[in-house]
Design goal:
The structure is a homodimer.
Chain A: H1 3-17, E1 20-21, H2 22-29, H3 33-45, E2 50-52, E3 55-57, H4 64-71, H5 75-86, E4 93-96, H6 100-108, E5 116-119, H7 122-127, E6 134-137, E7 140-143, E8 148-150, H8 152-159, E9 165-168, E10 172-174, E11 178-181, H9 184-196, E12 199-203, E13 215-218, E14 225-228, H10 234-242, E15 246-249
Parallel strand pairs in A: 4-5, 4-9, 5-6, 9-12, 12-14, 14-15
Antiparallel strand pairs in A: 1-3, 2-3, 7-8, 10-11, 11-13
Chain A binds a DNA duplex (30 and 30 nucleotides) through helix 3.
Chain lengths: ~250, ~250
DNA sequence: CTTGACTCTGCGCGATATTGCATGATTTAT
DNA sequence: ATAAATCATGCAATATCGCGCAGAGTCAAG
């Protein structure tokens, strides 16, 4: 790869991602970090970017929305959300759990798709304003930590639904202990939704693998598909591949 | 995440939220609280914010924010919302209708007040995340235009509540025709909530006065208080003053 | 064809920066 | 008044940095 090509790529990435992380780019291009650092140093001297510890930033900050979203490194979650959206078919009733990863799923859903979407997360419901889909909001007492409806009212409302797909978010996943979360009520709700649904699909970011939280949701064998980042360590994801779960890499 | 990005995020949050809570931000960014504290300490030393126990505050009241908000003509809604918030007492159960004016009411509510707040608006519910109040979310089919729960499920859930105050939003208000709105289901829901509540308080911006929408909610005589802008034409508000309604000017 | 100047790249090294944890002090809430 | 939360500090582990050096490739003059 030519130097000028590489520098053009750096400029393009700054526009696209709003940031450059020297170590990541070196690994991606199979170059030493020194080379990237030299590029960044030179380009900073040429006034093309702002050098910071760990990488570089654009001289003028990008759009506020883009900034805040990518600052929180939602790239992984975006990829998971897109893969999940690919599994949805027109006419289905899908249930979407709370959480920022599932929010990315909503953002990835085509706005004009004919769907019925149920959720117990007000944040997810609010995101669906511009979508054509019919939205069923599950009410109840809001559990403050994860901001989803819980309690008897929520359980009763869920009992009337038979979703085709339940997109599940959990706090932790472990080969032996399955999917777990931190709150008793929250776990009960997720269990109830999963029991009503034809299939449950879990979206999990890498740091959750191999960890366990106090309250059990369901075993891995009850998950129809597990969506996880493609760049995970192979031995981390190996136990789940053996459990005959469908693995989707994003 | 790059350090300088994180600090930029902190600055952005200070403008947006008017405060930083160290523990919350640490959890959200998956960092130790020490790192956030160090950021706040350094930024305070650099004169970018004011360090306080538990987090940080902006140095000066965020003028640009206020400016841009009022440029979007939400200034009136903010004033209405503040006056409405003044009517709330600790320990009460209040029901908050949907809409941007009621969103300002939520923003004006003290975050640490002991309350139970019911709402059928996912947007209002999402705003209450940082509040100490218990939140009861009314579920149902989301009516897309105003993004509130409607239908039998919502009506049933409302029937179990006896709110002290219902903060009502409506599309139109007229001395003879009372409060009206554009959707049949929405009107039915608002009627049901008002019927359950000890008192109903309406927040109305100036342009709604003297107008009528197709579906009737309730008459002016059933409104305990009407909060309206102070800078309205006197003859516009005169008919409502004569109806023995309590008028609160904001 | 050979040689030398030049550039680019990767590696090693010591210096610096960042982060998380432990500890004891301080503040806040109940 | 007591418990819990928050804080500052020191320390150790890790990441990143800048610099010098050497090998590989390029190019042009000899």
């Amino acid at each position: 790869m030519l130097t000028s090509q590489r520098r053009a790529l750096i400029s393009a990435r700054l526009v696209r991602d709003g940031q450059i992380v020297a170590g990541e780019l070196a690994q991606e291009l199979d170059l030493s970090e020194d080379t990237i650092r030299r590029d960044l140093r030179d380009m900073a001297a040429a006034g093309l970017l702002k050098r910071v510890h760990g990488g570089a930033l654009p001289l003028a900050p990008p759009l506020p929305d883009l900034e805040s979203r990518q600052a929180m490194s939602t790239g992984v979650k975006q990829r998971l959300g897109r893969k999940a959206a690919d599994l949805v078919r027109a006419g289905q009733l899908i249930f979407i759990d709370g959480g920022t990863t599932n929010a990315e799923l909503v953002r990835a859903l085509p706005r004009d798709m004919a769907l019925t979407i149920a959720t117990h997360s007000p944040a997810i419901a609010a995101l669906l304003e511009k979508h054509r889909a019919e939205v069923i909001l599950i009410g109840g007492r809001l559990y403050k930590h994860s901001m989803v409806s819980t309690g008897a009212a929520a359980l009763a409302a869920i009992g009337t639904l038979r979703p085709d797909i339940f997109f599940l978010g959990a706090t932790a996943i472990h080969a032996a202990h399955g999917l777990t979360t931190g709150d008793y009520e929250e776990a009960a709700i997720k269990r109830a939704i999963a029991a009503q649904s034809a299939e449950t699909i879990a979206l999990m970011t890498g740091e959750k693998f191999g960890t366990v939280s106090p309250h059990h949701i369901t075993g891995i064998e009850n998950i129809a598909a597990l969506i996880l980042p493609a760049d995970m360590a192979p031995d981390t994801s190996a136990p789940y591949r053996q459990k005959a779960v469908r693995i989707i890499e994003a």
